[in-house]
Amino acid sequence: MQHTVSLECAVTENLNPFGRCERGLLPLKMSFLTSWAIIPLLLGSVGVYSLYRLLQRLRSRAYIQDAVVVITGATSGLGKECAKVFYAAGSQLVLCGRNEESLEDVVRELNRMRKGSVKTHKPHKVIFDLSDVEAVSSAAKEIVKLVGNVDILINNAGISYRGTILNTKVSVDRMIMDINYFGPVALTKALLPSMIKNGRGHIVVISSVQGKISIPFRSAYAASKHATQAFFDCLRAEMADTDINVTVISPGYIQTNLSMNAVTDDGSKYGVTDKNTAEGRSPEDVAQIVLRAVGERKKEVLVAGVVPTLAVYLRTIAPKLFFAIMAARAKKERKLKNA
Ligand SMILES: NC(=O)C1=CN([C@@H]2O[C@H](COP(=O)(O)OP(=O)(O)OC[C@H]3O[C@@H](n4cnc5c(N)ncnc54)[C@H](OP(=O)(O)O)[C@@H]3O)[C@@H](O)[C@H]2O)C=CC1
Ligand SMILES: CCCCCCCCCCCCCCCC(=O)OCC(=O)COP(=O)(O)O
C-alpha cells in the first residue's frame, strides 16, 4: 500500500532530496532557481567549447603551415584542390603526377592565387607513374633529396572502373590494383623510414565509400579501395606508439574527371561523366574537409550523404538486406544497359 502512494507521489508531485513527497511552494522555488542556475552553466560551457575550438584551430594551423606536403594525382580533381588549400595554408608542396605540363599548369594556377597573410612556398614537381613500383621508389628518393623530411603524404591519385566481373580481363583488375593500391603502398613504404627517423609524419589516403561497401560493376575499384582501407588501418595500429598519424578519407561522389577517366572491362577509357559524379560534392569542399581532417589528425572521415552513410552501416548491421539491395541495383542497371 505504502509503495503505491510513493509511486503516485513521484509521478504527480515532487520528491525532496530525501525521497519524501513535498507539496506547496518550495519545489516550485527550487525549479525556478535551478532553471536560472543553468544559464551561467550553459554560457560557461559555450565559452569553454569556443576556447577549445580556437585552440584546436591554432594547433591545426601550426601543424600545416610550413609542413612539407606530398600530394599524388595533383594534376586534376581532388588532388589539385588539395594542392590549392594546402598551398594557401602555407605548406611546402611536392606535387606528383604523370604529366609534367599538367603539373606546371597547376603550379601556374597556384602562383596566380591571391596571397593571404600566410607565407606561401614555391611548389616542387615530381613526375612518375604510380603503377611502376621502380619509378615510385626513385620518386621517393627524389622527394627526400628535394625537401628532406616529408611531414604529410597525401595518397590521392586513383583511377576508377566500370564493367562486369565476367567480361573484365585480369590485366584490368591488376592495373587498377597497381595504381590504387600498390602505388600508395609502395610510396608510403618508401617514405615511412625517413618519417620514423624524423620522429613524426602523417600518411593520408583518399579511399572511397567503396572502400567500405561494394556496389555492382565496380569490382576492381571497390576491391582496390577495400584493400587500401585495410592496409592503412593496419599501418595506423602498427604506428600507434610513434608520432606517425594515419588518416583514411572515404568520400562519396565528387565532381571530378574520375568517371571520365575510368577504364572499362577491356581496359579502354569509359569517357563519360556519370550523373552521380556530376551531382557530387565539389572538389573544393572535399579538399577543405581533407585539410581539416589532417589538421585535427583525424583517424578516418566518411564524406558522404545520408543514404551512402546508412548503406555503410547496413552492410554491417543487416548484411542480407544490403546484399538484396545491391542485387536489385545490379538487375536494374543491367536492364537499363540492355534497353
Ligand atoms: N570523384 C569521385 O567521385 C571520388 C573520388 N575518389 C578518389 O579521389 C581520388 C582522386 O580522384 P579524382 O580527383 O576524383 O579523379 P581525377 O581523375 O580528376 O584525378 C585522378 C588523379 O590521379 C592521377 N593518376 C591516375 N592514374 C595515375 C597513375 N598511374 N600514376 C600517377 N597518377 C595517376 C591522375 O593523373 P593524370 O592527370 O596523369 O591522369 C589525376 O591527377 C581517387 O583516389 C579517387 O578514387 C573517392 C571517392 C569519390
Ligand atoms: C534504411 C535505409 C538504408 C538505405 C541503404 C540503401 C543503399 C543504397 C545504396 C547506396 C550506394 C551508395 C554508393 C556510393 C558510391 C560512392 O559514393 O562512391 C564514390 C566513388 O568512389 C565513386 O566512384 P565511381 O567510379 O563509382 O563514380
From TrEMBL:
Signal peptide from the UniProt entry: none
TM region(s), chain numbering: 33-52
Keyword Transmembrane appears in the UniProt entry: yes
Gene Ontology CC terms, in alphabetical order: cytoplasm; membrane
PROSITE patterns hit by this protein: ADH_SHORT
Function: Putative oxidoreductase.
Protein name: Dehydrogenase/reductase SDR family member 7B
Source organism of this protein record: Pelobates cultripes (Western spadefoot toad)
